[in-house]
Amino acid sequence: MPSYRKLIIQQLTGDFRTSTGVAEESLRDPGPGEALVRNRYAGCNAIFDKNLCRNKIRYVDVVPPYDMGIESVGEIVALGSNTSGYAVGDAVATVNLGTGYRQFQTANVGRLVKVRAASAETLAIVPSGVSAYVGLHHIAQMATGETIAVSAAAGGIGHFVVQLAKLAGSHVVGITGSTNKIAFLQQLGCDRVIDYRNEDLPQVLAHEYPRGLDIAYDTVGGEVFDAFLDNLAQRGRLIISGHTSDFDQPIEHVPHPRAYRKLYWKSASIRAFQNQAFPEYQAAATQHMLQLYYDGKIKSQVDPTDFVGLESVADAVEYMLAGKNAGKVVIKID
């Protein structure tokens, strides 16, 4: 029986590189309603991956050996029965925990998304672009012509948030911690780029945007979150889509006025958002984002650093955690 390679958590050390290793598994023929997919690219989700190695994902109990990787794109190489509508050779994207960092996966066809090509750019759309779409349109309820600030604006999700906000006719403020990313954000359409390591973010927001922010889309947390909260407009919405600045740190007890004192008089709100909590929006959002990409209305930015092979996943995770990426970090599965 032929075998394939996959990345697994071998032990829980709290560190990705020392927790993981490559294992082999036998291929099996797809059963009824299933497809065998050859993965070509997998998306890196560094914080989620590291939290798995710490067993700190609240809805997952990690017991080694544990399969890793969430999103991937590839081609169907074999089909079981009851799979009408699919053919060998179809390019498909998939999103499912434990199926990304591997050469092959067996998938129920109900969770396959047909795409035009098994490319890294397509992979970045599903699910990072979908997260941006759902977060803006359904959670933030974005309207036309608003002022929208985006933290980690050059990241895998952030660069889609910027473009979707510009398509809606918004004034977009891109937040970054790297001078190397300023030109990229300007090219995406940001009306103002703030390098929070070289500018005083709360002061810039207060002085340049005295009316406040209609939407603040935050994946960073910490002092960026505080600045966003203090500078919301009337009926402003602060979207929490992560907190990369302190995800692996002890909970910080910060002396602040209670949030309702900052929100109530503005009729503003804080709305937390994880993609998997809103399955009702996924299918339509996926097709909408893919069509925007196919029509050339949005760009799918893949970080130019090459990560090839399962042995490179640890490098990709550490690269992302260091904040070096511009766009989606993708691993080519060899």
Topology:
Elements (H helix, E strand, L loop, with lengths): L2 E7 L6 H4 E7 L7 E10 L2 H8 L12 E2 L3 E9 L11 E5 L8 E5 L3 E3 L5 H20 L7 E4 L7 H10 L3 E6 L5 H7 L3 E4 L5 H8 L4 E6 L3 H9 L1 E9 L18 H5 L5 E4 L9 H13 L18 H9 L8 E3 L2
Parallel strand pairs: 9-10, 9-12, 10-11, 12-13, 13-14
Antiparallel strand pairs: 1-2, 1-4, 3-5, 3-7, 3-15, 5-6, 6-8
Helix pairs in contact: 2-10, 3-4, 3-9
Your description of this structure?
The chain is an alpha/beta fold and 334 residues long. It has 2 domains: 146 residues, Alpha-Beta Complex (Quinone Oxidoreductase, Chain A, domain 1), CATH 3.90.180; 149 residues, Rossmann fold (3-Layer(aba) Sandwich). Helix content is 28%, strand content 25%. The chain is built from 10 helices and 15 strands. The strands form 3 sheets. Strands 3, 5, 6, 7, 8 and 15 form a 6-stranded antiparallel β-sheet that branches. Helix 2 crosses helix 10 and helix 3 packs across helix 9. The longest helix is centred in the middle third of the chain and has 20 residues. The model has no long low-confidence stretch (mean pLDDT 96).
